[in-house]
Structures are given as C-alpha cells and as structure tokens.
Amino acid sequence: MCAHLRPPRPRPAAPLPGPGLHRRLIALDLRVFEYAARRHWPGGDRVLPRLSHSANHGVLWFSVAGALAAGGSPRARRAAVRGVASLALASATINTLGKRSVRRPRPALDPVPLIRRLRRQPITTSFPSGHSASAAAFTTGVALESHALGALVAPLAFSVAASRVYTGAHFPGDVLAGAALGAGAAFALRGLVPTRDQLPSPGRPLVDDVPALPGGAGLVMVVNTGAGSPDRARALRGLLPHAEIVETSGSGLPAALESAATRARALGVCGGDGTVNTAAGVALRHGLPLAVLPGGTLNHFAYDLGIEDPGDLSRAVEAGDAVAVDVGRFTSSAGSGIFLNTFSLGVYPKLVKERERWSGRIGGRLAEVVASAYVLRHDHPLKAELDGRRRPLWLVFAGNCTYRRMGLTAARRADLADGLLDVRVVHGGRLPGVRLLAAALAGPLSRSPFHASVRRKLLRLDRIAPGTPLAFDGEVRPCGPELTVSKQHEALRVYRPLTLP
Asked: What's the rounded Cα separation, in Å, for the pair 412 and 429?
C-alpha cells in the first residue's frame, strides 16, 4: 500500500488524573500545612484563633451584615441581605453535600503550637472548610452589590480563611475548596436574584431637551430639613459647588419651591416622597426638569429612578442625563392632586393617620406595627361604586405604573412610563389581614376570591361614603363622593444616571 494511502496512526491519549496525581496533591497539601504551622505571624497567635471562633455559625458575618444594614444606605442594606443569603446557600450546600461526599479527616495537630489551637476542636470532616465557604460567600455577595463594601470586608474574610489553617483546623486545600464553593454560591444566587446593575433601567424614554449643568450651575435645590436630610444636601454641595441650596421645612416648603422655580434652570428637591410630590407639581407648572435627592424614610420614587446618594444625582445633573416619567392624577369633588408613586382608599389612608399619631411616641417602625394592628381590628370596609357595582372594599390601590408587588418587601417598578395605572382591589369580607397579605404577595394581573389586579388608564369610583380619607405618596386628605384617577403619560422630565456605579 502506498504510504500516502495508509491510515494515520492514532495519537496516544493524554494520561488521565489518577491515584498518582491525587497522592501528589495530598502530599503538597500536607507540606503547605506543615510550613504554615512552622511560620509565626506577628499577632497571629492572639488574634487568629479568636477570629476563627467568632466566625462559628456565621456569627461574625451576621454582625457585619447588621452593621452594614444599620448604616442606612440602600446599597449597604442590599449588600448585607445578599451577603447573608449567599452565606446561607453556601452553608446548606457544604453541610448537605460537601461534608458527606468527601470524608477527609482533620489534620494532625502535632506540628501546630498549643497556643494556636482552638479550645474546642471541630468534630466534622475536614473537606471542605465551612468557615472559608461562609467567608467567601458573604464577601462575594456583598461585593456583587457594592465593590467598595466588598473590598472593605475582603481582608476580614481572608483572615478567617487563613485562621483555619493557622489554628490547625483545616488543610489549605480544604480552605481553597470552601472558598471556591462559597464564591460559587454567591454567583448562583445572583443568577436567581439579579443585582441592581443587572435590573433593567426604569427610566424610559430618554429625553435630550434637559440642560447639562456643570458643577450644578442653574440648579436650585430645596432641602426639607424636617425630613432629616441636611447631611445629604451638604454632600451634594461638595459635588455640585455651583448649585444653590435652600433649606426649609414644614409649611415653608411650597413657597420655597415656587420661589426657586422662578430663577432655576432645573428644580431640585431633597426629602421624602411627600416632599418630592410637592416639588413635582411645581416643576410641572413651570415646565422645569426635576432633580430628586432621597432624604426621607422610604424614597420610593428616587430609588426607582436609580438615585440613592448625592453621587448618583450629581453624575446625572452634570451630564444632562434625564428621562420622561408618567404622573398619576386624581380628581374628586373635594379637590385634586398628583402622585408619582401610589394612590389609595380604604385601610391604607387610615393606617397612615394612625402611624403619624404613634410615631412621635414610639418611633416610626414600631408605629407601623401598632397602627396596622389597630386598623385591622377596629376598621370596617369602605363602600363605593366600582364598575357600576356598589360593594364593600378593604383597599383600592392605584400605582403610577406597574409594581411587581404591593408590599412586604420594597416594591419596585421596572418602567416609569408605561402609561398605565396598576389597580389592586381587596374585596370586603372577613379576615382582612389575610386578604391584604394575599394581595401584597400577588403580582400584577392576578385574581383571587380576596382581591383583583388589573392595569388601566382610568379608574372611576362613585357614591363614596362621606369622610372617607385618601392617601397619595404618603399624604392624606379627605375624598369627595366621586373620584377619578388618571394618567399623564411622560409628563415630567427627571434627571437620572444612565449608568449605575
């Protein structure tokens, strides 16, 4: 046969990892462990065993999460929640699969000085390191929400992982495997629950007729000091030195906003949702773009825009990045108004009144609990005519654009200009708490015997009982016997950053 017709000889297959490679890895792991046992880190004998003990059962990371959440920043709270959730997922994986799959014994403690050893030696198998998995999972989860906070927590996580080798609790390979599993758990969780930078931008459509204000020149920012926001205003002054800052509170707010609008190229406001509502009305009347800096308790509108701190707003103002958003409007025989977030009749307006009555005595969070218990126990359904039928109703809710959920967790809108009202109706009847809870957990376009959810451009109610209160963006006012709720599509231009940090 000719040489060129002979079939090519098969190449030998690459050797697969076998027992020899496994033994070499085990030997390398042991040598590194013994090397670490011989080394002395300044201060390590005193600090690392205590640090390792503090991480038992995740206590250290729960404490760090509590400190982050107490800081008040939405980004820090998200980072804390994601860090704890990632830790929980990693711990569950390690304890159900990892420890039972590879039953590796703990290292012999002979090379480890007595002063370094843990007071109580772990009794579970060695592979992988649960402490390292928890440290890596928590830190990675925090970093996925905030790179800066993740960088602050990382040295602590590295020290905890290193302490497991230094104290003789684990081989280095156990620590590396645990850290890899922990980081993987955090990324797996992100696949299920996206981080903020993965969520769609709610501000649409973009507008190009809003001025860029370098250094904040032309921006007049009215700060409601009653909302507890002077610190944020001072931070904004450092970022936008040419902006004019006006501080006011209480009854002086409307006049301060009207005065600012007469000399501003853009009207700014720092306060809660009620303050922003007042400023939005002034901006609409004067045809001005609005710059919102969150400074209240909830700040739903600012957060849905993607503005959480002065840095977010300053980037948008200097670049002239803005979007057009919808505005809700209600009209009744007792008056009219606008809302940027929510409008409601029934239980919620009464809850707001009770909360305000108690908040000065016991604080806002506890006041919400007391007010909810009081209203659900003593209140009765309102009666109104809806869609031509008079019926008892615990709640009539209209959101400015579609909300993913009504409550329990912070509701969020994926689109601030969809042209629709998110209408949720909770029917009257027994067990109001159960009915309201079911509506809170349900998403849009859902129905049950307890509630109904639809999306509309117009909502009308008639024959409303006298004295019925209504609530809009956290404010309460009396309602007339006839009520119409509608939308102004893309009526307000608002600064927002087009990219998230």
From this structure: 29
